[in-house]
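user: Please review this fold.
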Amino acid sequence: MKFFGLTFSQTTLVAIFILAVEVSCTTKEYSPVFIATEWIDLSYAFDSTTLYWPNNPDGFQHRVDAEGVTDLGYYYSSYTILTPEHGGTHLDAPIHFYEKGETVDELPLSKLTGEAVVIDVSEQALADRDYLIDSVAILSWEAEHGKIPAQVMVLFRTGYGKFYPDRKAYFGTAKMGEDAIPELHFPGIQPETALWLAKSRNVKAVGLDTPSLDYGQSKDFATHQALMEHQIPGFENVANLDLLPATGIYVVALPMKIKGGSGGPLRIIAAVME
């Protein structure tokens, strides 16, 4: 069999050569960008100050199992950690609020890496602890920066990151336990806006610098439901969003790979591309 005068084997070799050239060109095109990139850490360290939902019975624990110079003269340390899935800078996997949702270990890396935009709503959010991010705020951002491309991550900067880890300033109450829930006051995303982001903008992930995608007074976590039902993961308690520009960002958000997990500690970083 011949294609354009070439045998099948010759055609195959040509195809492989073209593919190799394309891969080589792609590598050459993108490598310099990442070499020259500034990386910003968007994660809080996990320690005794890590914030969890007020009624969570456990916090972060870092137990010393071994630490010091051994009998043979070398230094050795090893620790045990204990942490709930949801707390500090962490990921919400779709199964968190959707029975058929992807678990942490099932999330494809394509949903956890890629281009991102930062939408600054801090002026509105800092003026109103119960502020709900609506489509008007997003359309205003788009009027200046252009329409949000499909399959990007959207990060909302509310300005509440400056309060972390002050529990009262961050959550709106210093109380712990069930009694604290009615007194939670912090901004979040309007459920209708979350659905709009999923359907009209086809985003791959959503994050923000507050304890939850839903605002503090939410009873049904409808924003979580809207995103998770579309297999869109969320990032909560994201740090340092004030250091990022509105566009030109590449994000890597890799959680601890917990099999069957509904969420997990997240190391999220952003590259500011030239």
Remarks:
- Helices lie at 8-35, 122-127, 135-145, 167-171, 191-200, 222-228.
- Residues 7-36 form one domain.
- The radius of gyration is 22 Å.
